[in-house]
Specification:
The structure is a homodimer.
Chain A: H1 2-6, H2 10-26, H3 33-43, H4 51-61, H5 67-79, E1 84-87, E2 94-96, E3 103-107, E4 113-116, H6 119-123, H7 128-133, E5 135-146, H8 148-152
Parallel strand pairs in A: 3-5
Antiparallel strand pairs in A: 3-4
Helix pairs in contact in A: 2-3, 3-4, 3-5, 4-5
Chain A binds a DNA duplex (25 and 25 nucleotides) through helix 3 and helix 5.
DNA sequence: CTCTGTGCAAACACTTTGCAGCTAA
DNA sequence: TTAGCTGCAAAGTGTTTGCACAGAG
């Protein structure tokens, strides 16, 4: 399973790129050389790169691209759900003094974070292939969405 | 201490504070007024505050404290496991172009992020009390620890 | 041809650091 | 007493923004 995720197949890449171009057209975005290059760089790697990393990579085949464009494009990609942010919300760090096991729900509009506890999340064992390779120190379950009061505001 | 909270809840806070002081002594940290004030402010709220928010709150009862101290203290608290970071790693945003459902393991040393897929995590239903109140758009399961190559380096 | 996208530079928000004086142990 | 802590100011890091020009549709 680790392997399958790491070896993203070439044939699949082509289709992804076609789908992406369609997605751009559907959402009214222009298919620019830069946008395509950033998207390709992102799906060609399994290392969950930062904007800086994508920038360095794209620069090799497109030397005039700027870091700003990469930043803007990555943000756009996540807005049209062609990419996800796996680390760093871009907002300030936030802390929790509650040491008991629990999970969080975060409202993407008002940024409110709510604690909850749902035992089944806690009960799921970390898979063996992960436990064998890595020392797991922490397990986080995180939900995102729109909270009740933000929904009413629509 | 306000005396309106004279029951078990307050006793719990009291115990937490005692435990915290012990934790400081055990880890060789001094129990300073600032450190205590920051810790209290953190456990008195359920809103997962940022450093800035904690700062504003502590300032009311301790006007000379600086934001730097709050930042430093919150970092220290998470280092001694008296608090957790629930949002914002402080590092750069990182992106993922893999849209299939999957989970992540992140090595806290080398920052490498590895994809895996463990169906049981996917199968857990979001609890009803959350689904009823909030519109859930995304579910994230995230493991943190030490990866194989970093363990060997010890 | 039009209007979005890009590159540049400057602005920005948050966090960290160097240092001198302070304080808990 | 003294090692560690704090407050201040300055630097650092990553991201966003305003603007004029370029290029996709």
């Amino acid at each position: 399973m680790l392997n399958r995720c790491n070896n993203r197949k070439k044939t699949g890449q082509k289709k992804k790129i076609d789908d992406f171009q369609k997605r751009c057209r559907d959402t009214g975005l222009k298919v620019t050389t830069q946008r395509l290059a950033v998207y390709k760089a992102l799906i060609e790697t399994a290392e969950h790169p930062s904007a800086e990393t994508v920038f360095r990579r794209v620069k090799q085949i497109f030397p005039t691209i700027s870091l700003d464009t990469v930043n803007r494009t990555l943000r756009t990609l996540s807005e049209i759900d062609s990419a996800f942010i796996v680390e760093g919300s871009g907002e300030a760090r936030r802390f929790d003094g509650n040491l008991h096991p629990h999970q969080h729900f975060k409202c993407v509009r008002c940024k409110r974070i709510v604690d909850f506890y749902h035992q089944p999340f806690d009960n799921v064992e970390v898979p063996l292939n992960i436990r064998r390779k890595f020392k797991v120190l922490r397990k986080t379950v995180y939900l995102e969405g729109i909270c009740d009061s933000c929904r009413e505001k629509n």
